[in-house]
Structure of Berberine/berberine-like domain-containing protein:
Amino acid sequence: MGSPISTISHQKNERRSQKLNLVKTVGAIGGYLQGGGHGPASHEFGLGADQVLEYQIVLALGEHVTANACQHKDLFIALRGGGGGTYGIVTSATVKAFPERPALGHVLDIDALNARGTAQLLNATANVMASVPALVDEGFSGTAVLLKKEWENAVNKAKDTMNHHVVNDLIRYNGSSLFIISKFQVWDSFFAWSMMTSWFIDKHSPVSKKDKLPNLLKNITLDHDTHGEQIVSQYALLLNLVARGKVLEPQPMTAVNPSWRKTYLVAQQTDMWPDNAGYEEIHRFQNEVMAKKLKALKEFAPDMGTYGNEADPYDPDWKEDWWGDKYHYLQSVKKKYDPEDVFWCWRCVGNDAWAEITGGAVYGRLCQTKLSD
Ligand SMILES: Cc1cc2nc3c(=O)[nH]c(=O)nc-3n(C[C@H](O)[C@H](O)[C@H](O)COP(=O)(O)OP(=O)(O)OC[C@H]3O[C@@H](n4cnc5c(N)ncnc54)[C@H](O)[C@@H]3O)c2cc1C
């Protein structure tokens, strides 16, 4: 008997989420699946894109076609890792399904208690990073997170202030002459004030360059610009153990970055700029802080690359870093199926057919260019 399969479509997914009120996460057949798709299960089963058997897709001229190993094979390859949003609109995907199996979970929490502890925390994280190849070789998967916790301290301080000045005084009347409820609610942000950068780490770098890890972590957790001004309000470094295992096995007819097939660890850094930052600060944040972080990662594990779905969107070498030598093939598929560049997205294959005219702002309007060839 072959692998069981399951078909997912937008409509079914929508109905399910209405019924179950699912938490917000990625779309079932969109950028996650088409761009690669990793998770704790990818060590065991491979990337999300590796599991796709067939896509139904509406092309730019309105034609509804099937892409699989027999029909529109080039489109099928492009949709298995070449990224969403650029070849057409996928209306359904047929993917492999696997039986459930038991898993062992482990949580290790290390907190810095003072300034000395902060330096020690970086060294401890460096040691964890150096152990990743050994852990991953034994079949471990999951995520380690290094967080800047100032936010948590600020939240606690704000709660204490409110309780001290207002709530504690009122609470003594509760149930006698007054009925009082006091609750705090935390939102992630007013808007998404954050940017991400990431890089694939191979098996050997964390071990052979163990002495360079504390410095790498110092660079990645940098929170000020060249003028010494603090420009990162919060950060989180994720060490994603989502590769090795099945991910290392090259799959026919995929377009994911070939570097996935030598990856042991995906280092993923998210930084938030202060919410009062203007255009200039945001540009400095992008150009000075994030660029330095990406450079440090690239120097630590050269010749690797990264996962476009979780990459620095301002990486000047994005085509090569996100798709390696597959970019030109993907561009030819884009040209074939969308010759008039109807579909466009930032840093997608074929992106340079349109340019964003920002005029000094962060975002601007789009104009068609003649750059695409
Ligand atoms: C909360 C969160 C958690 C994440 N966790 C993971 C993770 O564990 N592993 C991982 O690999 N990645 C993860 N990511 C990154 C994720 O892979 C990317 O953000 C991906 O682009 C999400 O795809 P989407 O379709 O949900 O998003 P969208 O922003 O809706 O779409 C992304 C791109 O795909 C296109 N697209 C969407 N639907 C279709 C369609 N039906 N047909 C054609 N194009 C389409 C859009 O036009 C857009 O260009 C996470 C992201 C978030 C926000």
